[in-house]
Design goal:
The structure holds three protein chains of three kinds. Helix content of chain A is about 45%, strand content about 20%. Chain A has helices at about 5-20, 30-40, 145-165, 175-180, 180-190, 205-225, 235-255, 270-285, 300-310, 325-330, 340-350, 350-380, 385-400; strands at about 45-50, 60-65, 75-80, 85-95, 100, 110-120, 120-125, 130, 195-200, 230-235, 265, 290-295, 315-320, 335. Chain A has a six-stranded parallel beta sheet with strand order 11-10-9-12-13-14, sandwiched between helices. In chain A, strands 3, 4, 6, 7 and 8 form a five-stranded antiparallel beta sheet that branches. A three-stranded antiparallel beta sheet of chain A has the order 1-2-5, with helices on one face. Chain B is extended and about 65 Å long. Chain B starts with a helix and ends in a 12-residue tail after the last helix. The relative contact order of chain B is 0.07. Classes of the chains: A alpha/beta, B mainly alpha, C alpha/beta.
Chain lengths: ~400, ~210, ~280
């Protein structure tokens, strides 16, 4: 904190200094040199060198301050002395720099560092030497809390998966949007119209897209059984490939591999609204009777859902994007809200292992709810009673990632 | 074998990335960095996959004169023109690629986005009904936010923007967080299911 | 009378579309100006944060949008670039969306000359890189490894303003103008939470509600939400009659129009309900 006035002063000087000199290497010149000797040039001070924290080694962080008085130097040099005793100029830095990371030292070797200031082509001031030994760490200090939480969460979820495998009866509540999947496909079949499946606009690295693929498998099986065409326009190439595989498998499982048409699962464009325009075009031309909007959506959500509504389709939507959920609720018949989308796999397959993981997820959520409630109470009462504040502080540290 | 290899890859990469998050020491740091680089390479390579499919689908549609085939040549021409101009002129300002981008792609995209205003109006007209006290509360909040979002709100009463900020920062945030925490739990559980090979349906034929 | 309301309740959506179009077009054509008032909003927080940074700070400006969201985000980009230039900060432009790089170039190069700034000394456009959040994590270890050259293929080592910049640790602020994913959230999670870099941002009005959560937890230093956020920033920077400020009048009228529709819809609803009740 006591460094603050010095830093502010330095920065004020820099604004003036920047106009006076261009930083760079030490420029030579006899006239300037003599001028340098006459002036008192501000030099580096309070040098510190420490092993860079939380890394695989091979790095030392150096920081320093500049004397508040005196003329601003032209540039600064970082000098390192290795185990052999040989001095090495690591870098010439513009004035104003107060930090440098040396990324070239060897782990376990001691190095000495010093900072020199250049003015008029020669060394005008130097800091003392400090030593540091770079080393690798085995754990990110700021992430220990997160690791504990992850271990607890994984433990809870794996425990319930095990209990699911052992045949324990697990209850899952009715999810209207998923229960309506079969009806929607059935309706399309009755009307002799296609089913349109939109897996969101994100790539396969998005868990929502993966969840969407799971439901697509189910929809594909149903469309194969009922004999309705299934259209899947995608906005990512990888999603297209995966969707083709998933749909093909659905058709094989339904015993209708002949009905599978690869051309119906195609790539439109990566462009967000280009994709929205393309899908809207498909809706208007093909007039699907059932539309599934499941995955990650952004501002295009309402454009798609309202167009779908205008062609009279029954619409089932689902996303974990909080800001798009209201749009889907307003324009679709059924909406899977947030985690319901991820529950689809377990809900549709009723596989004990998946149901178990769902139960584990709920238990983990309970754990978080308790954590939040305790934290809020502790932080609130802690305002008046310090011991509880330290509990709140502990919880805050636990969940903070650095 | 067709199942085991992808599951093993998923498990190994998943575990490396988790360990990389907590352990800065080698070899995890290097492995993590390598996997991230591979992902970027794979993501870039996938662009060709999409382009090939796009051309295949639309050439086929045109050749066989399938339903609505007339749109396909437009797509093909647009696609090829942009690619060729991009290859010849690069992305430098005011050259043909940039010109087409700024004067065709940009306004067309903006047009699609602006449709949102119309759809919001029609959806709001249909959906906002003060049918019970909760819906009325929702309706009142919507009015306050809509007014607070434009200067006219402050002209009517200078407290309206403050009410908007309060609604957005407190009740909205509470609701958003609930959905986000729930969804995040879903993400964690789904990821674990995938890493441990319990969830397989995303592998297509591996179900 | 009741019949009129019933009919209004079933208003054809095309009529709504036409009326909304008129509500937008008329204020534009008549040059109606409604002065913008900036209250204690997150847009002011971002402005004040940028204002308080020491001159010469390195600021990453990430253009994570494409032309479709330009109407909302480009005025933000221009206002933010102007402010950064006026405060003598160095702008490192990049894009998580392929088309964002061109839009960023447009914003920076158009203001650079008029404000006496020079490319490679005061600003640079590193261009687009795929990978989103993964790419940001890598910037935390080495920026040069991710961007060996800038958008125009000038090597990193030949760009004076980038010398001395190794990783995100050397960055004082990241501002992401984002239309979706990857965007602000990726920056908050990867650069903000992992490397402790202050994150500010601008987004479309539709996405703003979601990002308020990050403001309250101070994971973001400020936020420009939609055209109003852009207009606020223009007002704070002192741009008179900026694009976003001019956009405030059609938006005001359109909001009033939508509210009128909702009121009409509700009157129709209650009229019908009463009729139903009387029967």
């Amino acid at each position: 904190m006591n460094r603050l006035p010095a830093v502010i002063l330095l920065l004020l000087m820099l604004t003036a200094g920047a106009a006076m000199s261009q930083s760079g290497g030490p420029p030579p010149g006899d006239e300037v040199r003599s001028a340098a000797l006459e002036q008192r040039v501000s030099g580096p001070m309070e040098l510190e060198a420490v092993d860079s924290p939380d890394d695989a080694g091979g790095a030392v962080d150096i920081n320093w301050l500049m004397e508040a008085e005196g003329t601003v130097p032209d540039s600064l040099g970082v000098i390192r002395t290795g185990p052999s005793g040989e001095e090495e100029l690591l870098a010439v830095l513009p004035t104003g720099t107060l930090l440098y990371r040396d990324t070239t030292p060897l782990n376990g070797t001691a190095y000495s560092y010093s900072i020199v200031s250049y003015y008029g082509g020669e060394i005008a001031g130097a800091s003392g030497e400090v030593q540091a030994v770079p080393s690798a760490q085995w754990l990110y200090r700021g992430r220990v809390g997160m690791m504990i939480i992850l271990v607890i969460l994984t433990g809870i979820i794996l425990f319930y998966i095990e209990s699911g495998k052992k045949g324990r009866e697990l209850y899952i509540r009715e999810i209207a949007g998923l229960a309506a999947v079969d009806d929607a496909v059935g309706r399309a079949t009755e009307m002799g119209k296609p089913v349109l499946y939109i897996p969101g606009i994100m790539d396969m690295d998005d868990i929502q897209t993966i969840a969407s693929m799971v439901i697509l498998g189910r929809v594909a099986r149903k469309t194969a059984e009922y004999g309705s065409p299934l259209l899947v326009p995608t906005s990512r190439s990888v999603v297209m490939s995966v969707a083709q595989e998933v749909v093909k498998e659905g058709y094989i499982q339904a015993g209708r591999p002949d009905a599978y048409n690869k051309e119906n699962i195609n790539y439109l464009t990566d462009d967000q609204f280009g994709y929205a325009a393309g899908v809207d075009g498909i809706m208007v031309r093909e007039k699907p009777a059932a539309i599934f909007l499941l995955g990650t959506f952004y501002a295009e959500s309402l454009i798609l859902a309202e167009t779908g509504r205008s062609v009279g389709a029954i619409q089932i939507s689902g996303t974990a994007m909080p800001s798009q959920i209201p749009f889907f609720v307003a324009a679709c018949d059924y909406t899977l809200i947030g985690e319901e989308l991820f529950a689809a796999s377990a809900y549709l397959s009723r596989e004990p292992k998946l149901l178990g993981s769902l139960k584990g997820q709920d238990a983990a959520k309970l754990f978080f709810i308790i954590l939040i409630v305790v934290g809020v109470i502790a932080a609130t009462i802690g305002q008046f009673w310090p011991p509880l504040e330290s509990v709140a502080e502990f919880l805050r540290d636990l969940v903070t990632v650095n | 074998m067709r199942l085991i290899i992808p599951l093993a890859i998923t498990f190994t990469s998943g575990m490396i990335m988790i360990l990389n998050f907590f352990i800065p020491h080698q070899p995890f740091a290097l492995l993590g960095e390598n996997l991230q680089e591979w992902y970027m390479i794979v993501a870039s390579g996938a662009i060709f996959l999409g382009s090939a499919n796009l051309l295949h689908v639309h050439f086929r549609k045109t050749r066989l004169k399938l339903k609505n085939w007339k749109y396909s040549p437009v797509t093909i021409v647009g696609f090829l023109v942009m690619i060729v101009l991009g290859l010849i002129y690069g992305v430098t300002e005011n050259l043909p690629f940039d010109y087409l981008f700024m004067n065709m792609v940009a306004p067309m995209g903006a047009t699609m986005f602006s449709l949102l205003a119309f759809f919001v109006a029609s959806a709001a007209f249909r959906a906002f009904r003060a049918s019970n006290w909760r819906a009325t509360l929702l309706l009142t909040s919507a009015f306050l936010v809509m007014l607070g979002q434009v200067p006219i709100g402050a002209m009517i009463w200078d407290k309206i923007p403050l009410a908007k900020v309060w609604l957005m920062a407190i009740p909205n945030t509470a609701g958003q967080r609930a959905v986000m925490i729930g969804a995040a739990m879903g993400v964690v559980a789904t990821s674990l299911r995938m890493i441990f090979g319990i969830e397989r349906s995303y592998l297509g034929g591996a179900d | 009378m009741a019949d009129i309301f019933t009919r209004m309740g079933n208003l054809d959506r095309r009529i709504i579309f036409i009326l909304i179009a008129l509500a937008v077009i008329i204020p534009i054509l008549t040059d109606l100006i409604i002065p913008n008032i900036v209250g204690a909003e997150p847009s002011r927080d971002l402005f004040e944060f940028v204002d308080a940074l020491p001159p010469g700070s390195n600021v990453i400006l990430s253009f994570d949008y494409d032309p479709s969201t330009m109407p909302e985000l480009q005025p933000m980009a221009e206002a933010v670039v102007r402010h950064l230039f006026l405060k003598d900060h160095r702008i490192i432009g990049m894009a998580l969306w392929p088309q964002g790089a061109a839009l960023g170039q447009d914003a920076m190069s158009s203001l650079s000359d008029s404000l006496g700034k020079e490319q490679y000394l005061d600003w640079v456009n590193l261009g687009y890189k795929t990978g989103g959040g993964v790419m940001i994590v890598r910037l935390g270890t080495s920026m040069r490894a991710i961007f060996p050259t800038d958008r125009d293929n000038v090597p990193w080592s030949e760009i004076p303003m980038l010398q001395g910049i190794n990783s995100l640790d050397d960055i004082q602020l990241v501002i992401s103008l984002s239309a979706g994913d990857p965007g602000i959230i990726a920056w908050v999670m990867m650069a903000g939470d992992r490397y402790d870099i202050p994150i500010g941002g601008g987004c479309t009005a539709v996405s703003a509600p979601q990002l308020y959560t990050y403001l309250q937890t101070e994971q973001m230093v400020g936020l420009l939400g939609g055209l109003k956020g852009a207009a606020d920033y223009e007002t704070l920077v002192g741009i008179e009659n900026g694009e976003a400020i001019r956009g405030m009048s059609p938006q005001s009228v359109a909001h009033i129009a939508i509210m009128l529709f909702i009121i009409i819809g509700n009157i129709a609803y209650f009229t019908q309900k009463r009729k139903g009740g009387a029967r």
